C-alpha cells in the first residue's frame, strides 16, 4: 500500500536544508504571517497540484477577488514582441497573482518578476522570476536578472513591480505611495527595445499595516500573508496606459522615475470633468457662399493685399468691410472645423463683433475655388488705440499686466485658425498659412511679435491638458488667466517635474494617456520651432469652455533658418 502526503503551504518550504531551529522559527512565522491560515485554505479547497492558471483562478475565486477595467488593459498589451508591463505595488502579493492570471490569457509567454516569498505557492512558480527586493544588490539576484534579460531577448512579455516592495506611508507627501522604482525597468526597456506599459493598481492594505511599517519597515513583510487573506470580497481597479518607448539617453534613475510617474499619471482617480457644453445641439451650418461671389470680392481687393501666390494657392488679407461674403464663408468653415473638435459655438456661423475689427488672412485654392484655411489677426496698436485692452479678444481670457508684450510694442494677436479637413493632413496648407503671415509681417515691419492661443481640444483627456500646461509654460510673468484650468498634477508627477522637468517628456506622457496617440497640437509644435514662450493656460468661456494655451514668438529671436523658412528672408 502506498500513501500520499498532501503538500502544505509553510515558510519552511522556502528554506533549503532547514535545521531544527530554523523549523521552529518558520513555524512561528507561519502563525505570525498568516501562512497557517493560507495552508488551511489550500487544504480545504484542494489546490495542491493545479496548474498555474487554474490555481490562480481558484485562489481569486475563493477570495472573491475581481478586476475592474481589465479589458482595457488587455486591449493595450501588444500581442507579440517584447513588452514590460510596469505596475505600482499597493498590496504586496495578490496584485501579482491577479495580473499574471489576466495578462497570461493574452500573452501566454508572460513572466512576472516578484518577491521570492511568493514561492510559497509551488503551483504558481512557473509564472514567476523570483528576486529579493529588500536586498537589490544581493549577488543572489543576478540569476533572476539574467533570466529576465533572456526572456525579453526572446521577445516575450515581462510584468514587473519596480518598487520592489509594497507601497508605504511617506510623510513627505502625507500619502501611501510606491518606493522609488529600480532603474532596471529603464535599462531593460532600452537594452531590448521593449515598450513600457504603465499600470496603476488602485487600493490599500489595512491601516495597521502602515502603522507597523512606520515603526520598522520589515514588519510589513511579516503582514503580507494576512493582507492577502484580508482582500476577500474585493474588486480591484486596474488603470492602464498605452505602451510607450521612453526617451533614450536618460540617466537610468531618471528613466525609472519617469516610468513611475507614468504609472501615477494613468490613475483614474486623477480626474476632471469638462464643463457642460454651452449648447446641447448644433444648429445647421449656414449655407456656403457662391464661389463666384467670393472671387468677385477677392478680385476687387487692392493687389497689395494678395500676399503670396504659389502653384494652386493664393494667400490674401482683408477686413470684413472689404469682403463680407468671404468673412461669412470663413465663419461658416470655422464652425464646421471647430465642431469636429468639440469646440464649435453650435451656431450656423462662428462669429463675433471682433470679426469686424480684426484682419483676416486666408488661403484661396484656385482649382476648387474655395477657401481652405484662415487666421484672424489683431493689430494691437490699432485695436487698443480707442478701446484699450477691451479691443483685444484675448483680454476676455487673460488679464494682461503692463509688462506683457502687447503693452510694450505693436503685436499681432493670432487666433481662430483652421484648415478644412481635406488639407489638415497636407503640410502644404499649413505652410501657405505661415508663409502668408510671414509676408504680411515683411510688409508691415512694425510687427515683429506674434502672440495668441493654441486651442487644446476637449478631445484631449484633462490629465493630458494638465501635463501640457505644466510641461510647456515657461514665461508666466505679466499675465493671469481669468478662468484657470483647475487640475493640479498628482504629487508624484509634481515631484518628477520638480527634479527633472516635464518639458522634454510631454510627448511621452501624451502617448501613454491618449488612446489615439495624439501629441501636442500641431500649431503648438510649429510655434515651438520658432522659439515660442508659453505664458498661461486659460479656459475660453466664449468658445465652448475650450482650454487655450497662450504663447508668443519674437521673430527677431528666431533662428535665421526658421526666419528664412517663415518669412522668406532673414530679418
From TrEMBL:
Residue ranges of every copy of the Putative acyltransferase ACT14924-like acyltransferase domain listed in the record: 42-245
Q: In which pathway does it act?
A: Lipid metabolism
Concerning Pfam families, the annotation shows:
Acetyltransf_5, Acyltransf_2
**Gene Ontology BP, a term:** lipid metabolic process
UniProt entry keywords in alphabetical sequence? Acyltransferase, Lipid biosynthesis, Lipid metabolism, Transferase
Q: Which reaction does it catalyse?
A: a (3R)-hydroxyacyl-[ACP] + L-ornithine = a lyso-ornithine lipid + holo-[ACP] + H(+)
Q: What is its EC number?
A: 2.3.2.30
List the SUPFAM superfamilies hit by this protein, alphabetically.
Acyl-CoA N-acyltransferases (Nat)
Q: Give one GO term, molecular function aspect.
A: ornithine-acyl [acyl carrier protein] N-acyltransferase activity
Q: Which family does it belong to?
A: Belongs to the acetyltransferase family. OlsB subfamily.
Q: Sum up the protein's function in the record's words.
A: Catalyzes the first step in the biosynthesis of ornithine lipids, which are phosphorus-free membrane lipids. Catalyzes the 3-hydroxyacyl-acyl carrier protein-dependent acylation of ornithine to form lyso-ornithine lipid (LOL).
Protein known as: L-ornithine N(alpha)-acyltransferase
Amino acid at each position: 500500500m502506498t500513501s500520499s502526503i498532501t503538500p502544505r503551504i509553510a515558510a519552511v518550504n522556502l528554506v533549503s536544508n532547514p535545521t531544527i531551529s530554523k523549523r521552529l522559527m518558520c513555524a512561528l512565522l507561519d502563525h505570525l504571517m498568516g501562512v497557517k491560515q493560507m495552508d488551511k485554505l489550500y487544504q480545504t479547497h484542494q489546490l495542491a497540484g493545479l496548474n498555474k492558471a487554474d490555481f490562480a483562478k481558484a485562489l481569486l475565486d475563493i477570495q472573491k477577488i475581481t478586476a475592474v477595467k481589465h479589458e482595457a488593459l488587455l486591449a493595450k498589451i501588444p500581442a507579440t514582441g517584447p513588452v514590460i508591463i510596469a505596475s505600482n505595488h499597493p498590496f504586496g502579493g495578490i496584485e501579482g497573482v491577479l495580473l499574471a492570471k489576466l495578462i497570461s490569457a493574452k500573452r501566454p509567454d508572460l513572466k512576472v518578476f516578484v518577491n521570492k516569498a511568493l514561492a510559497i505557492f509551488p503551483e504558481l512558480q512557473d509564472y514567476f522570476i523570483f528576486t529579493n527586493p529588500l536586498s537589490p544588490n544581493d549577488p543572489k539576484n543576478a540569476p533572476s536578472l539574467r533570466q529576465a534579460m533572456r526572456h525579453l531577448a526572446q521577445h516575450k512579455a515581462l510584468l514587473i513591480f519596480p518598487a520592489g516592495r509594497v507601497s508605504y506611508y511617506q510623510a513627505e507627501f502625507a500619502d501611501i505611495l510606491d518606493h522609488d522604482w529600480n532603474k532596471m525597468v529603464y535599462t531593460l526597456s532600452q537594452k531590448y527595445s521593449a515598450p513600457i506599459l504603465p499600470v496603476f493598481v488602485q487600493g490599500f492594505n489595512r491601516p495597521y499595516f502602515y502603522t507597523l511599517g512606520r515603526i520598522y519597515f520589515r514588519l510589513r513583510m511579516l503582514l503580507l500573508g494576512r493582507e492577502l487573506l484580508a482582500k476577500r470580497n474585493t474588486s480591484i481597479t486596474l488603470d492602464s496606459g498605452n505602451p510607450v518607448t521612453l526617451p533614450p539617453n536618460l540617466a537610468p534613475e531618471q528613466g525609472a522615475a519617469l516610468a513611475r510617474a507614468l504609472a501615477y499619471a494613468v490613475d483614474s482617480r486623477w480626474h476632471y470633468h469638462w464643463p457642460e457644453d454651452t449648447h446641447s445641439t448644433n444648429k445647421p451650418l449656414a449655407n456656403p457662399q457662391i464661389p463666384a461671389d467670393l472671387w468677385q470680392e477677392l478680385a476687387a481687393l487692392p493687389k497689395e493685399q494678395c500676399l503670396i501666390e504659389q502653384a494652386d494657392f493664393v494667400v490674401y488679407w482683408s477686413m470684413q468691410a472689404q469682403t463680407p461674403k468671404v468673412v461669412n464663408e470663413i465663419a461658416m468653415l470655422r464652425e464646421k472645423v471647430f465642431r469636429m473638435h468639440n469646440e464649435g459655438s453650435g451656431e450656423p456661423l462662428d462669429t463675433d463683433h471682433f470679426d469686424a475689427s480684426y484682419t483676416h488672412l486666408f488661403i484661396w485654392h484656385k482649382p476648387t475655388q474655395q477657401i481652405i484655411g484662415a487666421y484672424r489677426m489683431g493689430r494691437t496698436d490699432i485695436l487698443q488705440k480707442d478701446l484699450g485692452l477691451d479691443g483685444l479678444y484675448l483680454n476676455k481670457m487673460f488679464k494682461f499686466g503692463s509688462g506683457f508684450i502687447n503693452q510694450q510694442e505693436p503685436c499681432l494677436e493670432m487666433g481662430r485658425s483652421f484648415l478644412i479637413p481635406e488639407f489638415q493632413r497636407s503640410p502644404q496648407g499649413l505652410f501657405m498659412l505661415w508663409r502668408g503671415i510671414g509676408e504680411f509681417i515683411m510688409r508691415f515691419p512694425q510687427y515683429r511679435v506674434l502672440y495668441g492661443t493654441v486651442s487644446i481640444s476637449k478631445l484631449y483627456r484633462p490629465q493630458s491638458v494638465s501635463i501640457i500646461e505644466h510641461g510647456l509654460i515657461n514665461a508666466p510673468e505679466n499675465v493671469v488667466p481669468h478662468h484657470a484650468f483647475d487640475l493640479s498634477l498628482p504629487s508624484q508627477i509634481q515631484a518628477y517635474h520638480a527634479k527633472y522637468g516635464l518639458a522634454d517628456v510631454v510627448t511621452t506622457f501624451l502617448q501613454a494617456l491618449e488612446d489615439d496617440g495624439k501629441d501636442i497640437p500641431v500649431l503648438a509644435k510649429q510655434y515651438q520651432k520658432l522659439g515660442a514662450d508659453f505664458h498661461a493656460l486659460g479656459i475660453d468661456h466664449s468658445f465652448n469652455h475650450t482650454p487655450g494655451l497662450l504663447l508668443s514668438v519674437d521673430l527677431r529671436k528666431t533662428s535665421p533658418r526658421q526666419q528664412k523658412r517663415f518669412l522668406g528672408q532673414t530679418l
